[in-house]
Amino acid sequence: YHEMGLYDIPAVIDLILTTTGKKKLNYIAHSMGTTMFFIAMDRHRDLQSKVHKMVALSPVAYLSHVKTPMGILSLIPSVAFTVDILLFCLIYRR
Fold first, then answer.
1. Signal peptide span per the entry (predicted)?
2. Contact criterion met (CB below 8 Å) for 56 and 29
3. What are the residue ranges spanned by the domains of the chain?
């Protein structure tokens, strides 16, 4: 997955933006696609300005190891569920 995040995701994002003429895109991924996205965003910081929103469905990576308030709150199932619902509403609001 590492090479796909390093090479494929940046190439696909640039191809989509060039083809459509848009400045940003929304990225929706499932499982392995979320890992590839996280790698791409970590290794190619310039891509962050090209992605408007990212939706991670069944992500391979979770926040349980993160020591920030959001990571700590994600350990509480009801809080994690509420955050998921809030993020979903923010992403799909018009």
1. none
2. yes
3. 1-61, 63-94
